[in-house]
Amino acid sequence: MKYKVREIDVDxxxxxxxxxxxxDPPKKLFCKGEWKDQVFENCLAVVGSRRMxxxxxxxxxxxxxxxxxxxxTIVSGFMTGVDACSHKCxxxxxxxxxxxxxxxxxxxxxxxxxxxxxxxxxxxxLVISEYGEDSRPQLWTYPKRNRIVAGLCxxxxxxxxxxxxxxxxxxxxxxxxQRKVFCVPGxxxxxxxxxxxxxxxxxxxxxxxGIEINEYFGLGxxxxxxxxxxxxxxHGVEKRIIETLKSCPAxxxxxxxxxxxxxxxLSSKITLLMLNGLVEEKEGRLYVCKN
Amino acid sequence: xxxxxxxxxxxxxxxxGIEAEVNVSAKGLPCFDIVGLPDKSVDxxxxxxxxxxxxxxxxxxxKKITLNLAPADIHKEGSFYDLPIAVGxxxxxxxxxxxxxxxxxxEISLDGSLRHTKGALLLALYAKEQDVKNIFIPISCVNEAxxxxxxxxxxxxxxxxxxxxxxxEMLMSPIDVSTIxxxxxxxxxxxxxGFGEISGQHQxxxxxxxxxxxxxxxxxxxxxxxxxxxxxxxxxxVLPPLSEDESLEVTKIYxxxxxxxxxxxxxxxxxxxxxxxxxxxxxxxxxxxxxxxGEISLAHRGVLxxxxxxEFPRIVLESMRQPLEDGVVTISRSKGSLTFPSRFTLVASxxxxxxxxxxxxxVKCNCTSRQIDLYKKKLSGPIMDRIDLHxxxxxxxxxxxxxxxxxxxxxxxxxxxxxxxxxxxxxxxEGIFSNTEMSNIHxxxxxxLxxxxxxxLNLSAEKFNLSARSYFKIIKVSRTIADLExxxxxxxxxxxxxxxxxxxxxxx
Lengths: 291, 508
Hints:
The structure holds two protein chains of two kinds. By secondary structure, chain A is α/β, with parallel strands linked by helices. Chain A folds into two domains: 5-217, Rossmann fold; 236-288, Arc Repressor Mutant, subunit A (Orthogonal Bundle), CATH 1.10.10.10. Chain A is built from eleven helices and twelve strands. Chain A has helices at residues 17-20, 54-66, 82-92, 114-122, 141-152, 166-176, 191-202, 210-217, 236-247, 252-259, 263-275; strands at 5-9, 28-32, 43-47, 73-76, 96-100, 126-129, 155-158, 180-183, 205-206, 250-251, 279-282, 285-288. In chain A, the strands form two sheets. Chain A has a nine-stranded mixed sheet with strand order 1-2-6-5-4-3-7-8-9, sandwiched between helices. In chain A, strands 10-12-11 form a three-stranded antiparallel sheet. In chain A, helix 2 (54-66) packs parallel to helix 3 and helix 5 (141-152) crosses helix 6 (166-176). Chain B is α/β, with parallel strands linked by helices. Chain B is built from 20 helices and 18 strands. In chain B, helix 7 (202-214) packs across helix 19. The longest helix of chain B has 18 residues, at 409-426. Chain B is elongated and about 85 Å long. At the A-B interface, helix 2, helix 10 and helix 11 of A face helix 7, helix 18 and helix 20 of B.
């Protein structure tokens, strides 16, 4: 399949703002796929070992189950292992995804991932690179690529990384660019977790689920067309529920009477508020959470 | 001289065909022996039969009578062998040819009349299955047996009538099924408490509505006086009637323990059982040397209400695990094992803490957190996990008690009835009746989740620490909520509501 290549100059308006802020932004970005500005609004890089273990696979599935799928964009390096798996997970969750290549934009690397490459492009994703045509990847282009991955994102999540691996280079760039680094801890006996534990010691924040990432981005954990929670600005019934609860904790029956809405509608709203960390329940009474 | 009369033996709710072989021998001292592992009630049958034959104005042969209940290696108990034994002796004595294609069943009174006997429905079902054309049963059992179509049911009033029929002197005619009245034979308490009379408690009522519509187990937790018991009893007023197939299942259990009154027909009301918490585990699960069904089987297709759930002995609660999951219970004793259906809806209520007032708006709870922990631990995780709907019930403010409730039982019953009909239609090919019975394969087939709904559920599974079982339970509950609304696909709002009734014990 042939896709049109677009060139974006560093001075162009649509050039990703976050990427422009790094010390040495690529002068030019080559890009395949449909360019939408909002794709770069909430980018999360997910990187990790090429030799992904079963643990890493489980972690990715678990994290992606809890990520806000409608607002986040997953950026990764299209390598085998964790990178490829994150692209796949993102596609499964219908999230936007961006693959940053270490080679010329016309070259598919690694070659055996042609299917995934096409899937990303046909599902509204992007493939970008700072190199034109079909130049081959070189040893030094990988870290260069990693700087773009880190530069595009508000936060980087390292899933499995060995000591001195490329993923740690990405994490290091992110720290230098003052981006958040999240990391999933693993066993101290596992080679592919040593690197993770090292950066946790130094600067990365260990996490257990995607909910913490959503919170960092200021996003609710669950939002779809019916329920909009953008940066915690609430509308309609949800807003009234929170206001009622702010005055005093109440049971569902009391809120239902007070706001005159059916308890079945209320229950469903409460679940969504709880999932987004706004409301808590204790012994049948609902409370507003601090944040 | 020799005759063979066909009948059945009851083994729980199963039937085994037996033959009463009568031999009247001209030689030997006059005596009357029954062989073929009879128990006391069968052995005593010879006294009843002898007296009844004489009291009916017939002759009892003063010869050596040997009676074999074949197959001889099955234990026989019960009084219903009276009629086949009597018919056998009469046939031999009066040289009447044994009626072909007929079953005889019933207890005989000393005056020759037939008494009400348990198990008539099981006999009728056996007859239908084995293509037997005629069954002769006590007249008071006819209504019950008439539920089975396509066989000739003869209601026998007394032995003499049957004698004249067999001799062809005065023929009896089989019962006309159309004249049978279809009134439910067992009434489960009164239905005077309706949801309309209970003010407030919207959430609990909604949960009970879902429970009734999908057959989901429910537990209500709250301080004393909050209205838990009242709510559970009000549930009775919204339960949909049994469908015909369900009705048969329930009646089979009740007739096997002789709980169908004389002239009673099928049970059409859903059973409602509320055993006291001092019940033994055999009383709950079923048991005895000759196993009989327990409360969980008597509540089959109905409601088992366990008030003060926490006070039940642990052994009773834990023994309910498997029947709650499988809908059947197998009782194994030295004499053999029996299986009874036990697809009931568990409605439980308990207090949140030992003093009972934790969470009460006005009364202070003075339990320590350790006491509350211990109290909650009495109910094991696996049991709580098997309950679909968990709801907190707090007392209604006294000022609001006078307010009339908007949701009347009448309105709810119609909605529930509709939702049930949808389910019966959906599962017509699967051999199940309600959402709660869905296996995981059924869930995949009939409760397909859209991408968004599944994401919501997966996220909740992480956030609320759901077990795999409660994961599926929540899907089933959301299926019921969608059915109540009359919607084909489970939407986000249905799933979100279902999640409010999840088990909260596993959350940190």
